[in-house]
Amino acid sequence: MTPDLSIVVLAYNEEENVEPVIDELGGWLDQHLPDVRVEILVVDDGSTDETRAAAARALAEREGTVLVHPANRGMGAGLKTGVRAARGAWVTFLPADGQIDPAAIQTLWNARTDADVVLSVYEDRDDGAARRVLSWGVRALILAVHGVRMHSDGPYLFRRTLFDASQLEPDTFFLNFEFPIRVLRAGLRTATVTISCRPRRAGVSKTARLSRVLDVGRDLVDLRRRRFREALRRL
């Protein structure tokens, strides 16, 4: 049977976290969404530790698989790999660090009724000044360059058919911005929910750097160029 929902778990050097995170996620799904058929796809993005083995143990008795990149390619590449392999009509994603409470899955799922994409914002995330400045700077740049107000902090749920990996070029974290920007620019139906965010179970964040604002700025300009070329091809 085809799954209703595919959950892509993104992992890079998360051997301490990935197994308990999948165990918690699976147990929560069994209890709270028993009528929804779910597959869990773990993308090991070139980890140099035992992430792959830990993920395989966690998925041994569940519907799912571990997909492996031979080298680290980035969050965007991981998401594209997961979506390509996904069979569910709906797809969402989670980091393997344990920051997203499994309850977020039901919150996203329940909001899909009148939406093609369900975005999420964090209710209580506090990762310090660096991440707050990063978030503010990125939102300001998105508004300035693409003319959309994007309120999207966390994972989103989307119809799999809307995610065209061949169109979405970035392999980096920027893909997490590009897809919602394209959705908003296209006028697709969206909903926004509030979810909780917890501290990492172990380890340190690999994304919270102030220099990333400059990287995102360059990526936003590049996306605008690509969108312009795409519009010309449609003429």
Structural overview:
The chain has 235 residues and is of the alpha/beta class. It has helices at 18-32, 51-58, 75-85, 103-110, 129-146, 175-186, 211-234; strands spanning 5-11, 38-45, 64-69, 90-95, 117-122, 157-159, 190-195. A 7-stranded mixed sheet has the order 3-2-1-4-6-5-7, with helices on both faces. Helix 1 links the parallel strand 1 (5-11) and strand 2. The chain starts with a strand and ends with a helix. The mean pLDDT is 90.
The biggest beta sheet is recorded as:
7 strands, mixed
Helix and strand succession? EHEHEHEHEHEHEH
> What's the N-to-C terminus distance?
41 Å
Rg over CA atoms: 17 Å
List low-pLDDT spans: none
Inertia-based shape: globular
Q: Going across the major beta sheet, what is the strand order?
A: 3-2-1-4-6-5-7
The amount of beta strand, in percent, is 15-25%
Compact overview of the structure:
It is built from seven helices and seven strands.
Write the layout of secondary structure elements.
Layout: E1 5-11, H1 18-32, E2 38-45, H2 51-58, E3 64-69, H3 75-85, E4 90-95, H4 103-110, E5 117-122, H5 129-146, E6 157-159, H6 175-186, E7 190-195, H7 211-234
Parallel strand pairs: 1-2, 1-4, 2-3, 5-7
Antiparallel strand pairs: 4-6, 5-6
Helix pairs in contact: 1-2, 5-7
